[in-house]
């Protein structure tokens, strides 16, 4: 580990592992605040210029985007001969993939996710960054359930009106123009977010198949459907928004800013976020109360014995001299730590 890293932070347990390294929980030696540190083994990327460029590019992109309330913040970077260490905001709650797997979300739950997600994407686009791999696995939550967009290894910077190229992304979520090998804009992120919204409301992806090739063919066709048995309780406004986000014609597809200015009920999203935060507080309060009650129960016999000994001291004070009282009380203090 880097000497500078060990000076500024104290590393704790491992909390994640990837292709190129390990993620640890750590805390600041100065403030005591908790963080995550991604330690990348440089020997694993030494022979692959693409992977090496992606990792260093991720650091630059995150520095460009920080700080933002809905993007994982980068705090420090340390590098030595063997490792690259990136100190990041700690997001120790479950990611969106874990939350939406095998369940259907209500519209209010979906809105509570989509508003901060689109805020994060719009912030990236305003800074000239296309994420290019928006998917539930890369959408994290901190201890207060605030959404944080993560993993900028596939991101690319662009200038206004400038197009990008290269096939990047993940099956199910990648936009059709990417798969077609055409140049594309930052709106590929809006497509991916639209897929996430569809999955949250339907429990299944809009374009699927038995293999990666089948999935890609379905994405290229972009035949968007809303089966009645699945979407019978979904509002027409939500379905219209999906049509705008999952529009194959890029010129007609909404931008991130346009999504944020649609009929998405931000107040509803804020209310859900507040409710979640309150529930977190209730859970913490319950845990503290439970721990306090357990502490009381464990010490009730101790407290009773202390009271008995105090009574003995009072009795002693009426029949023994001062030195005897002091000696007896000193013995009591040695036996019980709460005096």
TrEMBL record:
Residues annotated as binding ATP: 38
SMART domains: S_TKc
Protein name, as recorded: Protein kinase domain-containing protein
Keywords per UniProt: ATP-binding, Coiled coil, Kinase, Nucleotide-binding, Serine/threonine-protein kinase, Transferase
PANTHER family given in the database record: SERINE/THREONINE-PROTEIN KINASE
InterPro entries the record matches: CDPK_Ser/Thr_kinases (IPR050205), Kinase-like_dom_sf (IPR011009), Prot_kinase_dom (IPR000719), Protein_kinase_ATP_BS (IPR017441), Ser/Thr_kinase_AS (IPR008271)
Protein kinase domain segment(s): 9-264
PROSITE patterns: PROTEIN_KINASE_ATP, PROTEIN_KINASE_DOM, PROTEIN_KINASE_ST
Top-level taxon in the UniProt lineage: Eukaryota
Family note: Belongs to the protein kinase superfamily. CAMK Ser/Thr protein kinase family. CaMK subfamily.
Keyword Transmembrane helix listed: no
Coiled coil start-end: 264-319
């Amino acid at each position: 580990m880097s000497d500078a890293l060990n000076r500024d932070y104290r590393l704790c347990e491992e909390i994640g592992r990837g292709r190129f390294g390990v993620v640890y929980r750590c805390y600041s030696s100065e403030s005591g605040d908790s963080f995550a540190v991604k330690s990348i083994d440089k020997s694993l990327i030494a022979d692959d210029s693409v992977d090496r460029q992606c990792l260093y590019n991720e650091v630059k992109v995150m520095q460009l985007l920080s700080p933002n309330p809905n993007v994982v913040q980068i705090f420090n970077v340390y590098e030595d001969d063997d490792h690259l260490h990136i100190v990041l905001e700690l997001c120790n709650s479950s990611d969106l993939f874990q939350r939406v797997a095998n369940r259907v979300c209500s519209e209010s739950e979906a809105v509570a996710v989509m508003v901060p997600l689109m805020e994060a994407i719009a912030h990236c686009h305003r800074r000239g960054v296309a994420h290019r791999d928006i998917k539930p696995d890369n959408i994290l939550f901190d201890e207060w359930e605030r959404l944080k967009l993560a993993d900028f290894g596939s991101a690319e910077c662009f200038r206004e009106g400038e197009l990008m190229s290269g096939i990047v992304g993940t099956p199910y979520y990648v936009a059709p123009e990417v798969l077609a090998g055409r140049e594309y804009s930052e709106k590929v992120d809006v497509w991916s977010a639209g897929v996430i919204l569809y999955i949250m409301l339907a429990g299944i992806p809009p374009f699927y198949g038995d293999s990666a090739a089948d999935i890609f063919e379905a994405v290229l066709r972009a035949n968007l459907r809303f089966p009645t048995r699945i979407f019978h309780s979904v509002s027409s406004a939500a379905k219209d928004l999906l049509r705008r986000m999952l529009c194959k014609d890029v010129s007609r597809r909404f931008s991130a800013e346009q999504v944020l200015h649609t009929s998405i009920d931000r107040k509803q999203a804020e209310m859900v976020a507040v409710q979640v935060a309150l529930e977190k507080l209730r859970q913490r309060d319950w845990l503290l109360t439970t721990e306090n009650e357990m502490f009381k129960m464990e010490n009730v016999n101790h407290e009773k014995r202390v009271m008995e000994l105090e009574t003995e001291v009072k009795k002693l004070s009426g029949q023994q001299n001062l030195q005897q009282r002091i000696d007896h009380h000193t013995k009591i203090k040695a036996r019980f730590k709460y005096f």
